[in-house]
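Review form for a predicted model. The reviewer records the input and the model, then writes brief findings.
Reviewer: anonymous (R2)
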Amino acid sequence: MSGEQSVPGGPGDGSPAGPGTVRPGGRTARTRAAALRAAEDALIEAGFDALDLADIARRADIGKTTVYRRWGTPAALVADLLLDMAEQSLPRTETGTLDGDLRANAGLVHKTLTDPRSGALFKAVITAAACDADAAAALHRFYATRIAEWAPCVDQAIARGEVPQGTDASEVIRAVSAPLYYRFLVSGDPLDAAAADRAARAAGAAARAGAYAASYDHP
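Model under review:
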C-alpha cells in the first residue's frame, strides 16, 4: 500500500470503537495477536469468503466464545487486522529530495505487493472490502493512514521549492501507488522494480509541472 499512521476512525479520534478496536495489554493483547495472525494465515490460504471465526479460534488456540464476543463477524476481524497492519507498518523514508522519497515509497509498495505472503493478504482484504461495507471502511482508513504518513515528503518538497505552492501532497502519493495497484489487481502486467521506478518518476514530474497544484494567487 502506499507504503504501509494514528488511524482515522480508530480509538482516540472521537469515533465510536467498533469490535476489535480496543488496544489492550497483557493476556488480552496476546489473544488479539494470536487471532490476527490466524486471520492472516486463513486469508492467505483461502480468502475472505472462507474466513470462519470458529476456524480462527482453532488456529489461534483460543476459545470460540472469546473470538465471537470480541469480533462478532469475519469483517470485524479483517477491520482489526487492517488496524494492526497500519500500526505496525514502516515509517516513511526521507532522502532529502522529492524524487528520492517517491522512489522509496514506490519501492515499499512494490516490495509489499510482490511478497508472496503480504501480496496474497492484500488481495484477500481488498476482496473483503469489495463485498462488505465494514471491511471497506477499514481498508479506506488503512490507506488514509498510509497516505498521511508519506504526504509530508511532498510538503517538504514544496518548502524546498521543488514543486509549486498549493500542490496536493496526498494526490502525489496516490499517483505513485495507483499504477502499481492497477498492475497488481487489474492488468496483470509485470509488477517489477522498473514499473515502481517509472511510477515514482512520473508522479514527481507531474508534481513539478503543477499537475497537482490548486489554483492560488501569487503574492
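Findings: The two ends are 38 Å apart (CA to CA).
Further findings: The longest helix spans residues 26-46.
Recommendation: see findings above.
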